[in-house]
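lol forgot to send this yesterday, sorry. C-alpha cells for the thing we talked abt
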C-alpha cells in the first residue's frame, strides 16, 4: 500500500470498456494507480486481468447518487488521496424528438450529468485538502453541433461543457484543474456497428472529417494522460475536441 500511495491515484468511471478502458490502460502504462468504476462485474474483472496490479475495480451504479459520498470517502480513506478523476461513464438514447418521454430525458440527465456533478463534488473535497488535482470530463461532438435523435444526450453533454468551465473558474485557484475532452467519431464496436449499418451516416461522418478516418480509443487515452500530466499544468477550463477536425469540417 505504501508504494501505491507514492504513485498518482486516478479514478476512471465507466472504465471497463471503450474509451474509459483506453484511458485506464494509458494511465496504468504510465505508472498511475487506476481505480475503475463500473456496473458490469464481468467486464471489470476482464479489465483488471488485463491491467494487472496497478488497477483496482469497484462495482457501483453511479445513478445511486446518495451512495456516492460514501464511495469516495472509502476510496480516499483507503488510498490517502485522489489525484485524478475522469468522468467518463454515460449513456445514450437514439429516439425521435417527439417520442422522448420525460422519464427518458430525466434518466439520461441523471446518469450523464447529476452523477458527474455528485462524483466531482465529493472528489473535489479530497483534492482541496492537498491543494491539487485534475478532473477530466468526457464531452461529445453532440455539444459542438446539432445531431438529430439524441436530444437528451446532447443536453447532458452541452451541460458538461458549461460545468467544466464553471468548475475550472471556481476550483483552479484551489489548485484543481478541470478540462473536458470532446471525442469525435471513434472506432469502437458500438460505433462500427452503427456506422456500418448506416452507409449514409458513415459517408456524412467521413466527408466532414478532414483527416478522413475514425479515431481510436487510444487517441482519447493519450489526451487524458496529457491533460492529467504536468505538461498541462497551465491548461484549465478547456473543451478539447479530439476528432480529426470533425467539429470544424465542412
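and heres what i got for the seq, position by position
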Amino acid at each position: 500500500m505504501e508504494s501505491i500511495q507514492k504513485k498518482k491515484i486516478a479514478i476512471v468511471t465507466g472504465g471497463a470498456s471503450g474509451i474509459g478502458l483506453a484511458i485506464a490502460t494509458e494511465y496504468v502504462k504510465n505508472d498511475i494507480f487506476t481505480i475503475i468504476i463500473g456496473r458490469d462485474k464481468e467486464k471489470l474483472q476482464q479489465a483488471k486481468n488485463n491491467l494487472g496490479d496497478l488497477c483496482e475495480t469497484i462495482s457501483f451504479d453511479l445513478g445511486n447518487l446518495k451512495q456516492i459520498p460514501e464511495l469516495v470517502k472509502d476510496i480516499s480513506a483507503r488510498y490517502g488521496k485522489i489525484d485524478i478523476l475522469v468522468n467518463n461513464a454515460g449513456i445514450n438514447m437514439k429516439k425521435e424528438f417527439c417520442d422522448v418521454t420525460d422519464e427518458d430525458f430525466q434518466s439520461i440527465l441523471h446518469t450523464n450529468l447529476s452523477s458527474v456533478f455528485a462524483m466531482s463534488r465529493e472528489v473535489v473535497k479530497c483534492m482541496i485538502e492537498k491543494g491539487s488535482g485534475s478532473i477530466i470530463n468526457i464531452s461529445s461532438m453532440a455539444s459542438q453541433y446539432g445531431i438529430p435523435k439524441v436530444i437528451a444526450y446532447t443536453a447532458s453533454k452541452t451541460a458538461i461543457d458549461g460545468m467544466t468551465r464553471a468548475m475550472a473558474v471556481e476550483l483552479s485557484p484551489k489548485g484543481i484543474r478541470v478540462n473536458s475532452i470532446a471525442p469525435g467519431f471513434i472506432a469502437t464496436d458500438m460505433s462500427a456497428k452503427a456506422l456500418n449499418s448506416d452507409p449514409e451516416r458513415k459517408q456524412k461522418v467521413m466527408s466532414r472529417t478532414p483527416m478522413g478516418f475514425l479515431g481510436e480509443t487510444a487517441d482519447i487515452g493519450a489526451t487524458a494522460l496529457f491533460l492529467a500530466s504536468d505538461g498541462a499544468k497551465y491548461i484549465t477550463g478547456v473543451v478539447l475536441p479530439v476528432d480529426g477536425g470533425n467539429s470544424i469540417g465542412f
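The mean pLDDT is 95. anyway ping me if u want another try
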